[in-house]
Specification:
The complex is a heterodimer of chains A (115) and B (118).
Chain A: E1 3-5, E2 10-14, E3 19-21, E4 24-26, E5 31-38, E6 44-50, E7 56-58, E8 64-68, E9 73-78, E10 87-95, E11 104-105, E12 109-114
Parallel strand pairs in A: 2-12
Antiparallel strand pairs in A: 1-4, 3-9, 5-6, 5-10, 7-8, 8-9, 10-11, 10-12
Chain B: E1 4-7, E2 10-13, E3 19-25, E4 32-38, E5 44-51, E6 57-58, E7 67-73, E8 76-81, E9 90-96, E10 108-109, E11 113-117
Parallel strand pairs in B: 2-11
Antiparallel strand pairs in B: 1-3, 3-8, 4-5, 4-9, 5-6, 7-8, 9-10, 9-11
The chains are: A mainly beta (115), B mainly beta (118).
Chain lengths: 115, 118
């Protein structure tokens, strides 16, 4: 079975600083990878996704992520964060050969941006 | 883009009562919807997969009689928490796949419903 690990439960950072949120996955078959953002008391919004092709994926709000197959990682990055980026970020995977029956989430990383 | 809407956003009920949460796909037909539960500061845990016109598929450890799921149409799935107790208090989120985007596996999420059982 596949699993997703987000090692950092919370990442504090100052406004305009760069940030990286880490995500590693475990799967015996190829996966599709996603990053979702959740603002307080709201559902999840897709930031970006990796399906195939270029390993560097650009998403909304200036975020990007790089798929590294050898390290089974899909870390999320932003060169300069804003206060409004404060939220919970979830990495997720789905297996390519299962008809996308399940989306498995990591435990989430809370990004705290302070002035 | 695909839009999924949940109602109500907040609900407070007394212990022992039942609560129904609705999940609607507004601009697409969803043959499959998913119900998640999220405890404070934790990740989303899949509760069940709701299939239009058939019985829901529940994850291990989820009580079928406690969490009743009905997917009577292609745009509506409901989750009923029966005889709710304080331990059922949580944030419930539904999601769906847009068949027009099936190849990506992407899910579209509702706004979530926070249930507080007194």
């Amino acid at each position: 079975a596949q699993s997703v690990t987000q090692l950092d439960s919370q990442v504090p950072v100052f406004e305009e600083a760069p940030v990286e949120l880490r995500c590693n996955y475990s799967s015996s078959v190829s996966v599709y990878l996603f990053w979702y953002v959740q603002y307080p008391n709201q559902g999840l919004q897709l930031l970006l996704k990796y399906l195939s092709g270029s390993t560097l994926v650009k998403g909304i709000n200036g975020f990007e992520a790089e798929f590294n197959k050898s390290q089974t990682s899909f870390h999320l990055r932003k060169p300069s964060v804003h206060i409004s980026d404060t939220a919970e970020y979830f990495c997720a995977v789905t297996l390519m050969n299962t008809g996308f029956q399940k989306l498995v989430f990591g435990t989430g990383t809370r990004l705290l941006v302070s002035p | 883009g695909a839009v999924v809407s949940q109602h109500p956003s907040w609900v407070i009920c007394k212990s022992g009562t039942s609560v129904k949460i609705e999940c609607r796909s507004l601009d697409f037909q969803a043959t499959t919807m998913f119900w998640y539960r999220q405890f404070p500061k934790q990740s989303l845990m899949l509760m069940a997969t709701s299939n239009e016109g058939s019985k829901a598929t529940y994850e291990q450890g989820v009580e079928k009689d406690k969490f009743l799921i009905n997917h009577a149409s292609l745009t509506l799935s409901t989750l009923t928490v029966t005889s709710a107790h304080p331990e059922d208090s949580s944030f419930y989120i539904c999601s769906a796949r847009d068949p027009r985007q099936e190849v990506t596996g992407e899910l579209f999420f509702g706004e979530g419903s926070r249930l507080t059982v007194l």
